[in-house]
């Protein structure tokens, strides 16, 4: 059995579809209120903050994918992420399940220096610090032999369905609704973005590749990087609208943060929009040269084709 913890998010749902299509018919979806992606999926309702529930959710699994997320609330992240990681590691260790962890880049330095799997952690705030800490917690469990696992790390993503990211929320959703896109700080720095279904498809492949374990993997992104100015133009073309956008300055975001906790809690990520963001996924591409990465044009046209 292959089990997805945090299966209700867009990454988890896409992952379930990929696993069933390419690897297994025995899938368990775990979340507080799980919903089937396929009629044959097994559902298991669990709160992973409860150790006993996490233990039961993992029982019988051969491979566990940890794709759970938390709301953009710094206090919640600091309090809950270490508990979640501890419970998941303990459950996998108890049942002898392999662990595939879907991670982000919040712990990386927010500079123009290329980011590889060997990039040292240099977080810019509490969210980055806690994500770095739980990544190290898993790496320690792997190196000590407690669990057989891997880290699958992705930059900011964009995609179809209910994908939640800054790019989806501020650019894609606005353009599709006929409104101006909103861009943070600058429109001329290069962005690395991953198409959400590609992240899920790559993670399914890695999880079912025995020699991929014991490592950190950057999930595959298009080699071409675009500025937000270019991305808005390409998205507008796909959606059949004018490429209208506004660049939000720091003072505007600070003012908005006084009234919106989500914007205030995203403040530690702002430096990455002031510099080129160069996330390197060459390791994955060398190991899996047959994997087809979705181009920005293809991804945006797929989003445009949604009902």
Summarize the helices and strands and which ones pair or pack.
Blueprint: E1 2-5, H1 10-22, E2 27-31, E3 42-45, H2 51-58, E4 63-66, H3 74-95, E5 98-103, H4 126-143, E6 149-153, E7 157-158, H5 166-176, E8 181-184, E9 190-191, E10 194-195, H6 196-207, E11 216-218, E12 226-227, H7 228-239, E13 245-248, H8 250-257, H9 261-265, H10 282-287, H11 296-304
Parallel strand pairs: 1-2, 1-4, 2-3, 4-5, 5-6, 6-11, 7-10, 8-13
Antiparallel strand pairs: 9-12
Helix pairs in contact: 1-6, 2-3, 3-4, 5-7, 7-11
Brief synopsis:
With 307 residues, the chain is an alpha/beta fold.
Describe the structure.
The protein is of the alpha/beta class. It has eleven helices and 13 strands. The protein has helices at residues 10-22, 51-58, 74-95, 126-143, 166-176, 196-207, 228-239, 250-257, 261-265, 282-287, 296-304; strands spanning 2-5, 27-31, 42-45, 63-66, 98-103, 149-153, 157-158, 181-184, 190-191, 194-195, 216-218, 226-227, 245-248. Helix 3 (74-95) runs parallel beside helix 4 (126-143), helix 5 (166-176) packs parallel to helix 7 (228-239) and helix 7 (228-239) packs across helix 11 (296-304). The longest helix is centred in the N-terminal third of the chain and has 22 residues, at 74-95. The radius of gyration is 19 Å and the shape is globular.
Attribute tags:
alpha/beta, 11 helices, globular, UDP-galactose 4-epimerase, domain 1, single chain, 307 residues, 40% helix, Rossmann fold
State the helix count.
Answer: 11
Give the CA-CA distance, first to last residue: 33 Å
CATH class of the largest domain: Alpha Beta
Q: Indicate the structural class.
A: alpha/beta
* Global shape: globular
The share of residues in helices is: 40-55%
Number of strands: 13
If strands are numbered along the chain, what order do they take across the biggest sheet? 3-2-1-4-5-6-11
Sketch the major β-sheet. Answer: 7 strands, parallel
Q: Roughly what is the average pLDDT, rounded to an integer?
A: 95
